[in-house]
Amino acid sequence: MSDLVLSVDVAAPAGTTWLALTDWTRQGEWMLGTSVRVVEGNGRSVGSRIAAFTGVAGIGFTDTMEITAWEPPLRCTVRHLGSVVQGTGVFQVVAKGGARCTFVWAEHLKLPFGLAGQLAWPVLRPAFALGVRHSLRQFARFAEDYSIGGR
Asked: pTM value?
């Protein structure tokens, strides 16, 4: 298993940040190269499934996830079900007073491709983390401007 934990401060209340975070169909507005859709359930309860396609021009992979914990407005835990991405993801919102919070993104991943994946991870991890950090900065702006139903 390999862990990656990153966070970003958000100048928005925890409740607003939670709603922005769990607006699955709009994640493509802030998550680098990714589009997300609910494929089973309502997307707001344990057992719901979401599918995130990451790639460019139709070339990439789909990461299907099942929500295993739903604790609004604090935490959503998902189990990655795919052949490429396996493990657990945790999205957590930590309130910092009434108008600020921190969004924490944690991934506990089983690396794909066996020994080759384990050997490649130390080289690929910095690029992956860079992409996630970029997405987190985009998310902070998205959440600060968030309105239900789009802009």
From this structure: 0.88
